[in-house]
Amino acid sequence: MALQNFCLNLYPFSFNIQTNLKLVRDNLYRLYPGQVSLNSTQVTDYSLSLSKGSGFRRLIKPQARFFCDQKEPFKPLRQEQGYALLEWGMNWTIAANEMQYVIAHSAVLAKDDKAILFPAPPGSGKSTLTAYLAFKGWRLLSDEMALINPDTNIVTPFVRPICLKNRSIDLAKSWFPEGHFSSVAHNTHKGDVVHLSPPEQSWKNNKSNARIVAVVFPNYRAGKELEIYQLNKTQGFMQFAENAFNFGVNGATGFRTLTKVIENAESFEIFYSNLEEVIEFLEQDIIDHA
Q: Judging by DSSP bridges, how do beta strands 266-272 and 210-220 pair with one another?
């Protein structure tokens, strides 16, 4: 397959993607139906490439290689992991280059333009919770990164598919059989990985900012009844700062912005297994009072 150029318009960024991998092309069309075009003349923010590995190795163990503006930040992966590599590469591109936002590793979902951030390490159940909320009437702004406008508590959407791993894949497919899922990337460093396109309302509203009203640190525990711990401002700030990508780089602006968010939002740590209980808490105890 010859190299093809795809323009991917993902407010507030755009990408030109070159690929000769059919798997990558097919997944782009499946997960980004209204955002992908074949207009190779469009000016974009970033030029990305996801292509087959070269040399003798390609005949024995076919690989996929990711480049951003001629730089290769990751080692090649197996070709069947190529689409996941592209999604992770887009995450890296924004986290490494965009300084006009204060960026936190966090899911962002909103009700009535009131946003809740869900910062969490791998294994916390963040993405499973994100998918569940997105398909239960919440608007997805991001699964992976909160783009916070400097010196405000306003977050800008960066709508993209939700990354699901291992057991969450079968759960999501049983919950949302109408969903648009990518092919499975088996045995990555995160285990088996699939990406799930959010519902149409998230795409339609992908330029609508939201006001941050809460920061919730989720912790999934099998069989656990819902436990909610409200954090004071110091606790909330310290945990939130640990999840900020460019907090240090942005210096005083980063510090002021995180402070603004925590001062104007409630902070909670929750332990749970029942997602409906979590939704009830979020909607009745946070959104309704914000």
A: parallel
CA angle (260 as vertex; 220, 161 as ends), nearest 5: 45
11 secondary structure, DSSP code = T
pTM: 0.93
Handedness of CA 90, 96, 102, 107 (dihedral sign): positive
| 3-class DSSP string for 177-241 | CCCCECCCEEEECCEEEEEECCCHHHHHCCCCCEEEEEEEEEEECCCCCCEEEEECHHHHHHHHH
Report yes or no: 77 and 188 within 8 Å, Cβ to Cβ.
yes
Strand 139-142 vs strand 227-231: parallel, antiparallel, or unpaired? unpaired
pLDDT in tens, 227-283: 999 999 999 999 999 998 887 777 899 899 999 999 999 999 999 999 999 999 999
Structural domains of the chain sorted by starting position, each given as residue range(s) with its CATH number in brackets: 4-97 (no CATH), 102-161+198-289 (3.90.228.20)
Comparing CA positions, the residue from 12, 76, 26 lying closest to residue 49 is 76
DSSP classification of residue 273: S
DSSP letter assigned to residue 81: G
Tens of pLDDT along 108-154?
A: 999 999 999 999 877 788 999 999 999 999 999 999 999 999 999 99
Tokens for 159, please give them.
């709508």
Alpha-carbon distance of 99 to 253, in angstroms, equals 10
- The backbone torsions φ and ψ at residue 86, rounded to the nearest 5 degrees and listed phi first, read -65, -45
Q: Which residues contact 176 (CB under 8 A, 6 or more apart)?
A: 131, 135, 196
